[in-house]
Amino acid sequence: MRLTRLRLNGFKSFADPTELHIAPGLTGVVGPNGCGKSNLLEALRWVMGETRPTQMRGQGMEDVIFAGTTRRGARAWGEVALAFERDGTETEIVRRIARDGGSAYRLAGKEARARDIQVMFADAASGAQSPALVRQGQISELIGQKPTARRRVIEEAAGVAGLQARRAEASQRLNAAEANLQKLEEVTGALADRLRALERQARNAQKYRELAAAIRVAEGQLLWHAFAAAQEVLAAAEGDARTRAGLAARAEEAALEAAQAREAAEDALPPLRAAAAEGAQAATRLRTQGEAEAAEARRAAQRLRDLEKAAEDMARDEARESGLAREALEALVRLRAEGERLGAAAEGEAEQLEAAAELSEAAADALQEAEAALQQATEVAARVAAQVEAAERQVQDLGRARDRAAAEAARATLGLTEAEAALRRAEAQGEGAAEIAAEAEEALANADEALTDAEAALAPAREADATARAGAAEAQARAAGLAAEARTLGRLVAADGSRAGQVGEGLRVPEGLEAAVAAALGRDLRAPVVEEGSGWTRLPPYDGDAGWPQGVRALSALVEAPPELARRLSRVGLVEAGAAPDLWTGLRPGQRLVTRDGDLWRWDGFCVLATDAAEAAAEAEAMRRASRLPGLRSEAEEAAERAEAAKAVQDEAARSVARANAAAEAARNARRAAERQAQEAARVAGRTEADRALAQAKGDAARDALGRARAALEETQAALSQATELRAGMPDARLARMAATEAGSRAGAARAALLAARAAEEDRKRAAAGRARRLAEIAREDGLWSGRHEAAQARAVEMGTRRDRLAQDIAEAADIPAEIAARQAEIAAALEEAQAARHRAEARLAEGEMALRGRQDAERMAERAASEAREVRAGAEAARVAAADRALAAGARIREERDLSPRELLDTLGDPRAIPAEAAVQADLAALRRRRDAIGPVNLRAEEDARALREEQDVLVREAADLSAAVAELRQALSVLNREGRDRMREAFGRVNAEFGRLFRTLFGGGEARLTWVDGDDPLEAGVEIMAQPPGKTLGTLSLLSGGEQTLTALALIFAVFLVAPAPVCVLDEVDAPLDDANVGRFCDLLDAMARETQTRFLVITHHAVTMARMDRLYGVTMAERGVSQLVSVDLRAAEAMVA
């Protein structure tokens, strides 16, 4: 990996896009304090995956975004891109962060995880925490670090930083798997307790179901009582609704009669309204006639005024027409004088036109003769030029064809030579390819045989491995199950409490008698053994036999008990459950009978059944657990030993499979290699044969082409000779072109003469035509003015006639106003009479309307009575509908709750007469519900839950076995990682130690230095101590050296790591600050040597002039704008070359 370019945009003080090229050799970064030089190092670490804000000198990771200045606003995001080359390909990593949005990586344009980026750089001996990125003060930190922290330098040299991350991940997964395994064991124990509880719940659920069935019968009876009551209410509501409907019908008949009377009154009104309307129309019509006569009078007066005005206009028009007649007469006199002048000028015009036409015809004939001569000369010149050009073009074409034929013949000759050489090479290669193909086929056959043998050996190994794995898994599952059961039982026994000092400590109860002993002794087992006070005391046995009947055995003869319990147990007899009630009455004082189930009968008449003795049951369960525990632990230990043995068998089988797999894989690889070799040989042979056939075909084609080219060359050469001779015998084209030019000049002169003659002729014609046009216009204007004169005289006559007619119209219009006044008087009298008739008709109409209103009031009263009757009917109907709804609801409730019709419900209940009264049913239902509630909460799914719980328990047992196998595999993987890490650490330590001593002597000019392991021998856990002895001093630790010596020693260690595992880039941030000029020189010499010996590219941030002078190139960081960094660069080596 070679880093080539670092680009910053909005990162810290670099607000603008800035690019830093990381070139080979030494690159210096200079600038004043506080200008942002260290931000370049932090940008490099940030893009390599740094996640701690404190390492970026911030409180939060968003602090790396440009925060703004007084002149610039803050950026919303920041970005750093790092370009690197690997395997000849340049790739770019981009890390971008947004405010309140977190950061994201892109690798080669695709999204990537931060962990992938960190592991990639760790595998390349670099990364955000690499010792190669030396920030300010890091040299002092390396000097003051604890040896265990200093071990990271060796890890970087060994290249195990990525291995350490994978080792830590494997360790975390192992711890998580072990924790999950422990949780599974605890869950399995809890499931067993839940299973026992579910079995008890199943018994309660059965009782609950029986009571629920009885409650369901009682609820069905109540549903029937509710339905029957609703039916009775519905029948009563239907009868009332019928009565109310009859009353409403009678009220509606009365309302109908009132409506008919009102309609009769309404029928009488239209004639009266029509008579009143006719009177109003007659008055209106007469009033309209009067208004029309008034308008007619106004129109007659206006007409009279209009006629008088028209007479005045007529007088003015008559005067105007007389003036027009005089004007037309004067124009006629003027036109006739002009016509006489033009007629005199046109005399002799015909002879002049005839002479001009004769001159034009003579010029046209001369032109025609000249153009004919020109055409003939032009055709001769064109024909000669075309023949010459065609001959020359033919000579040129034949020359080019001859050259092409010669070149084609040369190419064909060369192609034939090359084809023959290629054919000879292909034949030689074909012989070698055939031999190689035969050898490859033989190797492939051998590889197939070896692969068949390896796969045949692999199948039995895999079968044995599968068998061993199944046996080991079964054994481990059984061992894990027994161990979990033993642990659970141990916890339960511990929860029962210790029996130390109690009388029950020495009690040994055979299996199956725990309930009987617990019923006989109960809580007395918890009492201590004492000499005096509360507790058990040893007493002598009873005198004589207890006198137990046949079939009864004393518990003292069946259990191993301490002497303190001898008297008690001798008076407790074990009996079968069915015989106890018969023997109860014959018990003597102090005697008791118990069964194996835990039932107790006492001599004094007291009896306790096992189902009611919870305390005794708990004590019996505790005894069972205590007696079961030792055997269970022994069984678990044996199962664990068998699991270990099965695991060993499995491991051996797995190793056998691995060996067989390795052999088979080797055989497959050998076969693939042989197959590739055979395929390659076949391809080579095929390619060689194709090359030979191609060379043969090319040779044949080249021979044919050579023959064709030679024939074409001879043919074109003969044609060229013939064409050259033909061209030499042709006439000269220049003479023909000169003759055509002279003929053209003569034709031009004739054309000019023709144009002049025709121009003179046209001038004369235009003058004659102009005079003729003017004479015609004078004739036309004469006719126009004559017509105007006649029209003016005619209009004057017409206007005299119209003047007389207007005088007559004026006299007639003066008589019309008197006639109109007479008609207006007649209309006024008729209007007065029509108004009187109208008033009489309106009076009769008012009387009819009053009668109509009386009948309308009667109708409204009848309608109100009918409405009230309808409301009563509607209320009855609503009551009927409500009763029907309640009946339907009762039936729907039956269907909803029972999914039955009422009749089907009655069929399930039997004879309705046998159904108890509703109150009795309610009392029975309440009693049944109290009995159900007394049972308490019931799990109706207890049986299903128990079955599911058993399945879950089986699954968990299998998962525990799988987890155990996974834990074993993780332990093995972790062991492999540790072993690999230790080997690589030891190797790197030796190489770094040797290089460190050499570089120390180089920097100090002598002396001695070495690294040592401290705090243990394990390279993965031990620390690294630095021992140094500069010239003239004793050997000691790093803390005993001066500041400059410490810096040089730390640099020697860092550079030793580079020589062992060169990093892609090394950044040194002001590490030369503690050094004097002499040591800075040594430091720069070492940098030059490191740059030459390794591929590491160095970025050196410095203020020292000596260091600046030794750099290959310099970047300057400036802050021209406050708070904003900028980058400038100069290549010192290029500058030196220019100066030289």
How does this model look, in words?
Homodimer. It holds the Pfam family SMC_N. With 1140 residues, this protein is α+β, with helices and mostly antiparallel strands. It has a domain of 154 residues. It is 71% helix and 9% strand. The protein has 18 helices and 20 strands. The strands form four sheets. Strands 2-1-4-5-6-7 form a six-stranded antiparallel β-sheet. Strand 4 and strand 5 form a beta hairpin. Helix 4 crosses helix 14 and helix 5 crosses helix 14. The longest helix has 185 residues. The protein is flat.
Give a quick rundown of the structure.
This protein has 1140 residues and is an alpha+beta fold. It has 18 helices and 20 strands.
User: How would you state the average pLDDT, rounded?
Assistant: 76
Structural class: alpha+beta
Which residues sit in consecutive blocks of at least 5 with pLDDT less than 50?
Answer: none
Instruction: Count every helix, treating DSSP H or I runs of 4 or more residues as helices.
Output: 18
Tell me the span between the first and last alpha carbons.
35 Å
Strand content: 5-15%
Instruction: Summarize the main sheet.
Output: 6 strands, antiparallel
Cα-atom radius of gyration: 68 Å
Shape field = flat
Report the strand count: 20
The strands making up the biggest β-sheet line up spatially as: 2-1-4-5-6-7
Helix content: over 70%
Task: Give the helices and strands, then pairings.
Layout: E1 2-9, E2 18-21, E3 26-30, H1 38-47, E4 77-86, E5 89-98, E6 102-107, E7 110-112, H2 114-123, E8 133-134, H3 138-144, H4 147-158, H5 161-345, H6 349-496, H7 514-521, E9 553-554, H8 566-570, E10 572-574, H9 580-584, E11 592-594, E12 600-602, E13 607-608, H10 614-728, H11 733-898, H12 902-909, H13 918-935, H14 942-1004, E14 1008-1014, E15 1023-1029, E16 1036-1037, H15 1043-1060, E17 1065-1069, H16 1077-1093, E18 1097-1101, H17 1105-1109, E19 1113-1121, E20 1124-1131, H18 1132-1139
Parallel strand pairs: 3-18, 3-19, 8-17, 10-11, 17-18
Antiparallel strand pairs: 1-2, 1-4, 4-5, 5-6, 6-7, 9-10, 11-12, 12-13, 14-15, 15-16, 19-20
Helix pairs in contact: 2-5, 3-15, 4-14, 4-15, 5-6, 5-11, 5-12, 5-13, 5-14, 6-10, 6-11, 6-14, 7-10, 14-15, 14-16, 15-16
